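For homework, think about our next protein:
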Amino acid sequence: ELENLSDAPFSGDEENGGSEERKTEINGNWIPATSITEAKINAKAKRRLRKNSSRDSGRGDSVSENGETLKIGVVVPTSPKGKLLDRRSRSGKGRGLPKKGGAGGKGVWGTPGQVYDVEEVDIKDPNYDDDQENCIYETVVLPLDERAFEKTLTPIIQEYFEHGDTNEVSEMLKDLNLGEMKYSVPVLAVSLALEGKASHREMTSKLISDLCGTVVSKTDVEKSFDRLLKELPELVLDSPKAPQV
């Protein structure tokens, strides 16, 4: 009896049954062996088909599960990505173009070349202010500090030594907010002239004369020369003849 036992799911008589149809019991039901074999073959074919399609996905045309050939770059319409990037109308109408020529979205500027009318003020608006229409807006220029003063005026005075136009210097200084640094204009001009030529000193004398009364006052000029006399020991280091000049 031990010799007749084997690992096969069939007994010895069933294996030698010849042409008789074999049956296997699954979940208490007897199923013919031929149907099981066909199911295994179909499953194996599907697995092989999926494996081949995954290999060929980066080399050329791929094959879908249904055996249809798909070209690279074509997104399957049923995929979520295909629906996201699809610009066609969901209702099946339209040509997939942007709405209103690109001017129908939220926060857009409108179509190219569109001209907007002047917005009229609504008097009934709760935020309407009658004094707002009579407001005059002016550009506010901050006063220069000591560091910005020297950095801004030094090139102006040096250019004046080249062209010699006092009116141009006066117009440029009027555009600046000198504030309390007005008296420093003659100080800087004389300091630069001491390091230059005799012609530069003569031009500086003319510049101070023309600026007095327009950009700087007589009091500012007096204050500037008082400061020059106090800083004379430092000026001698750069210009030894500063006291005589």
Q: What stands out?
A: The chain is about 45% helix and 5% strand.
